[in-house]
């Protein structure tokens, strides 16, 4: 299972091709578009989200509501494109920097300068157009398909915001379905209403200061069988693959599995999850500090992972930088931006995690059709039950 995306934030569309989905996966298009809609919400988003109304158009690999086993191609259109047809034209255009909206003042914290130096581009727009977090719309569309594959096997994904800047939400270990329901009713994707109000006021303050703010989000995957991923080779460890996927989300700087960095503070006796057995549940754990992973394999307990997002670097409050034309210092010009995109990032994280879990699921249970995967899955569950 693999995918690639293409497309620029102000170009005509985002495009994704998914290879390796089995045949006969029944797709719920409404559910797919609901996931795209969720990503667009959240307190602290800027004006761009009022322009876009993301929906995925599937243009390959699906017929009469089901996958055929062929690569799935999908497209998410950019409504904003209509304002950028000349600037983003693939044909050469007349006019100078103004007409091209050439960017020559790199924004600290963005890919601008590194990308310009690396690709030898004197118009940093060529970097920022692709490095924009707009690309996460395609990743959510792709992940939404993975999510539907997982759902067919009873695996549920949910997410929540844990922290925005100085405001932390009280911890909870709610079942995925309840967590999804409660966070969906929140402007900042938290369960606790008092925290929600404090976060909103905090984001207002950040925005009024011309600043931006990051945070921490958590993703939970429930109903995962024991034994996805493997201890035998470094690149088969599923927790590490999830961590890589999480840090690949725009502006993410780290990932924790289970209690994460706290495991470096506590004693072994406080950290590890005792093993229990009962007729009803089989082997299970007394706690889940490991976040559903031991030896790079799932334990059968819920996967719990957290990601940290840095504040969005496009600031109304300018930071020091250097103009690439003059090599003289300047203070960055004001750009349209979000002051806080942590709630949206929580939705993105759910989808990149779902993708990695689905990928490991297909590695384990293989098969070219849903029916073949189901047979393999049922037979494995029987093996585990009778172990
Ligand atoms: C982004 C900058 C803003 C955000 C964008 C990510 O876009 P613009 O430059 O058009 O104002 O709105 O996010 C999205 C478009 C989206 O769909 O999430 C950036 O620089 O990363």
Number of domains: 1
Low-confidence stretches: none
SS-based class: alpha+beta
The helix-strand sequence is EEHHEEEEHHHHEEHHEHEHEEEEEEEHH
Number of strands: 17
Helix content, binned percent: 25-40%
Overall CATH class: Alpha Beta
Q: Architecture in CATH?
A: 4-Layer Sandwich
CATH superfamily: Chorismate synthase AroC
Overall 3D geometry? Answer: globular
- What order do the strands of the largest sheet run in, or round the barrel if closed? 8-7-9-15-10
Bound molecules: ligand EPS
CATH topology: Chorismate synthase, AroC fold
Function: This reaction introduces a second double bond into the aromatic ring system.
Subunit structure: Homotetramer.
Binding site for NADP(+): 39, 45
GO biological process, one term: amino acid biosynthetic process
How do the helices and strands line up, and which of them pair or pack?
Blueprint: E1 2-6, E2 13-19, H1 29-40, H2 48-51, E3 56-60, E4 62-63, E5 66-67, E6 72-77, H3 97-100, H4 112-119, H5 125-131, H6 136-151, E7 156-164, E8 167-168, H7 176-184, H8 193-208, E9 215-222, H9 238-247, E10 252-257, H10 268-271, E11 275-278, E12 282-285, E13 293-294, E14 297-298, E15 303-309, E16 320-322, E17 329-331, H11 342-365, H12 370-385
Antiparallel strand pairs: 1-2, 2-6, 3-6, 4-5, 7-8, 7-9, 9-15, 10-15, 11-12, 13-14, 16-17
Ligand EPS is lined by residues 9, 46, 48, 52, 80, 132-134, 136-137, 250, 314, 336-338.
Binding site for NADP(+): 39, 45
Pathway: Metabolic intermediate biosynthesis; chorismate biosynthesis; chorismate from D-erythrose 4-phosphate and phosphoenolpyruvate: step 7/7
Catalytic activity: 5-O-(1-carboxyvinyl)-3-phosphoshikimate = chorismate + phosphate
């Amino acid at each position: 299972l693999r995918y690639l995306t293409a497309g620029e934030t102000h170009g005509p569309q985002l495009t994704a091709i998914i290879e390796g989905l089995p045949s006969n996966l029944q797709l719920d298009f409404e559910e797919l578009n609901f996931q795209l809609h969720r990503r667009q919400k959240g307190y602290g988003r800027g004006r761009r989200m009022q322009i876009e109304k993301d929906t995925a158009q599937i243009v390959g690999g699906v017929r009469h509501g089901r996958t055929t086993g062929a690569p799935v191609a999908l497209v998410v259109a950019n409504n904003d494109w209509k304002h950028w047809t000349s600037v983003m034209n693939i044909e050469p255009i007349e006019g100078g920097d103004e007409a091209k909206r050439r960017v020559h003042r790199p924004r600290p914290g963005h890919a601008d300068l590194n990308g310009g130096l690396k690709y030898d581009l004197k118009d940093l727009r060529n970097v920022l157009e692709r490095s924009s977090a707009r690309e996460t719309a395609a990743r959510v569309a792709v992940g939404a398909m993975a999510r539907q594959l997982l759902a067919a096997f009873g695996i549920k994904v949910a997410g929540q915001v844990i922290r925005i800047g100085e405001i932390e939400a009280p911890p909870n270990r709610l079942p995925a379905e309840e967590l999804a329901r409660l966070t969906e009713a929140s402007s900042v994707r938290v369960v606790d209403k008092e925290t929600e109000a404090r976060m909103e006021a905090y984001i207002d303050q950040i925005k009024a200061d011309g600043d931006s703010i990051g945070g921490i989000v958590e993703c939970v995957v429930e109903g995962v069988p024991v034994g996805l991923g493997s201890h035998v080779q470094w690149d088969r460890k599923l927790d590490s693959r999830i961590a890589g996927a999480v840090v690949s989300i725009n502006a993410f700087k780290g990932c924790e599995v289970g209690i994460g960095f706290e495991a470096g503070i506590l004693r072994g006796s406080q950290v590890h999850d005792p093993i229990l057995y009962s007729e009803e549940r089989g082997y299970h754990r007394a706690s889940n500090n490991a976040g559903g992973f031991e030896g790079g394999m799932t334990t059968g307990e819920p996967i719990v992972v957290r990601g940290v997002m840095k504040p969005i670097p496009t600031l109304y409050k300018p930071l020091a930088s250097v103009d690439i034309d003059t090599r003289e210092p300047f203070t960055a010009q004001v750009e349209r931006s979000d002051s806080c995109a942590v709630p949206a990032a929580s939705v993105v994280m759910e989808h990149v995690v779902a993708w990695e879990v689905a990928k490991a699921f297909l590695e384990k249970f293989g098969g070219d059709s849903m029916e073949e995967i189901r047979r393999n899955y049922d037979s494995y569950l029987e093996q585990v039950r009778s172990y």
